[in-house]
Amino acid sequence: MPVETLPDVTTTTIVGEPEFRIPLLGTIVDSADAYPDRPALGVKIPNNSKAMPQTGLNEADIVYEEIINDRITRFAAVFHSQGSEPVGPIRSGRAQDIDLLSNLNGPLYAWSGGNDGVTRLVRASTFIDLDGRYTSGYYRRDGRGGAPHNLFSSTEALWSHTPDEYTTPVPVFPYLLPGEEITGDPGTSVAVTLDSVDVLWGWDPNRGSYFRWQEGDPHMTELTGQASTENVVIMFVNYVSGVVDSRSPEAQTVGTGRVIVLSEGIAREGIWTRPDKYSAWEFYTDESRLTRIPLTPGRTWVELPRDDPANVVLNP
Fold it and tell me: Which residue of 14, 207, 250, 313 has the lowest C-beta tally within 10 Å?
């Protein structure tokens, strides 16, 4: 299988856009020296009772939640601006991760391995492969439970595996311009169904964040309290049978679809679009693509439910 090479990165200049932002947060800074010179790091973290509480979800710049086999979900936590000690548990990857994470511009990819087909896809991608089966010295088993739910590492250890030649991430979301305000309808809570997983996000105006509940209980992390984020992006996607494993669903994250974006207690609905796996996500109010939907600078959690309006209820 031929190995992919990174395409030339192109950016779109928006009038009024500040020169420097922390790439995966959108926070305006004075210079590029204000954020780390290192690649993005994607870590596969399971989402089931045996894996809880997880570590690192509140330190990640971006968290994607994808449906996998057995009607459960798994997280792809993306780190760049800060790290987590420890991070995990760390589980296997999926073929759908290639399209999902390729716009991170050559990220490190921390996972506990996968079937032969997924392994071939990862090795042929632009990812820097940190397969837990072969990356000696960067992973450890802790005392909780048993394998496979007890594999951990730290972002510092994983970043230490960065090769001499690497690329840093570019923004993957649109953000508010200086002086721009979010307008829309109330978006103080949202319920999302991802096959067998029921999620609720609720806005806390005093803390300026959305907080996560799962199966009716607060979703607690091991070290930093309840899982939270500044932006909740719900991208409706089609899932198809996996290319290398028909039992494993694959989210179709290239193309276009419906989106709901929640920021600052406000909800905006429209479309998401991405012409190829290397491009940033763009959000617009409608198919005319004249009015964009920007995020507030900060952390972002992306939910990927199946493309059925019944899977999402605003302000339940």
Answer: 207
Beta bridge partners of 260: 234, 269
- The count of other CB atoms within 10 Å of the CB of residue 216 is 7
Distances (CA, A) of 143 to 80, 132, 146: 28, 18, 8
Q: What Å distances lie between residue 1 and 4, 121, 180, CA to CA?
A: 9, 8, 46
Burial readout 236-259 (b: 16 or more C-beta within 10 A, e: otherwise): bbebeebebbeebbbbebbeebeb
> In this structure, are residues 240 and 249 in contact, taking their beta carbons and an 8 Å threshold?
yes
Q: Are strands 197-204 and 209-214 parallel, antiparallel or unpaired?
A: antiparallel
Residue of 43, 307, 37 whose CA lies nearest to 153: 43
Using alpha carbons, select from 126, 107, 103, 104 the residue that is nearest to residue 275.
103
Burial class (CB in 10 A: 0-12, 13-18, 19+), 17: middle
Q: What is the pLDDT of residue 7?
A: 65
Question: Average pLDDT, whole number, for the chain?
Answer: 93
Residue 36 CB neighbours (<10 A): 16
Q: Which domains does the chain have, with CATH numbers?
A: 32-159 (3.50.90.10), 185-314 (3.50.90.10)
Other C-beta atoms lying within 10 Å of the C-beta of residue 148: 17
Q: What is the pLDDT of residue 5?
A: 62
pLDDT, average across residues 111-122:
92
Question: What are the Cα distances from residue 285, in Å, to 176, 181, 198, 294?
Answer: 15, 15, 27, 10
Q: Which residue has the tokens 């960065």?
A: 162
* Amino acid present at 90: I
Greater model confidence, 6 or 100 = 100
